[in-house]
Amino acid sequence: xxxxxxxxxxxxxxxxxxxxxxxxxxxxxxxxxxxxxxxxxxxxxxxxxxxxxxxxxxxxxxxxxxxxxxxxxxxxxxxxxxxxxxxxxxxxxxxxxxxxxxxxxxxxxxxxxxxxxxxxxxxxxxxxxxxxxxxxxxxxxxxxxxxxxxxxxxxxxxxxxxxxxxxxxxxxxxxxxxxxxxxxxxxxx
Length: 189
Prior knowledge:
- This protein has two domains: 18-36 and 107-188, Gyrase A, domain 2, CATH 3.30.1360; 39-103, 2-Layer Sandwich (Alpha-Beta Plaits), CATH 3.30.70.
- It has four helices and eleven strands.
- A hairpin with a 2-residue loop joins strand 8 and strand 9 (148-156).
- 23% of the residues lie in helices and 33% in strands.
- The longest helix has 15 residues, at 166-180.
- The relative contact order is 0.25.
- The chain is of the alpha+beta class.
């Protein structure tokens, strides 16, 4: 009988790394970075549920996490590290009957893209108006980037976070490199 051994690999395993469109790192206008093992939670609430957003804002403030609106009654909570189990259990209990908490850490990949030319680069692939007066700091929206569905969030004037289904992460990574070549892009996984 044939034995198959499965091995877990990150979604961006084997992704292209280095400089593209320039040979000098100091001239790269874009930095593309894969986040290391973040915690990504999705929160879904039915119509009419009250107090969910307030509960989430209070929890992310205590845990130094980020809250990303994904539509009515739908949020992503992004943490750079695994929150304590007790804290997650307390959040789940607090939301009981009003919202469901779903761990998406293995199903989604978080990519950070930044630099002085980041808005120009992303404009090539999305229909969102990324000028700061239209897409402000902290604002988040589901969108297409090229042909891939993603969650885009402005985390600073020159930095965005992209949440993408892990099965599409490598394709999006390659597309971002192509979009950023003219500005010079440096990638790190």
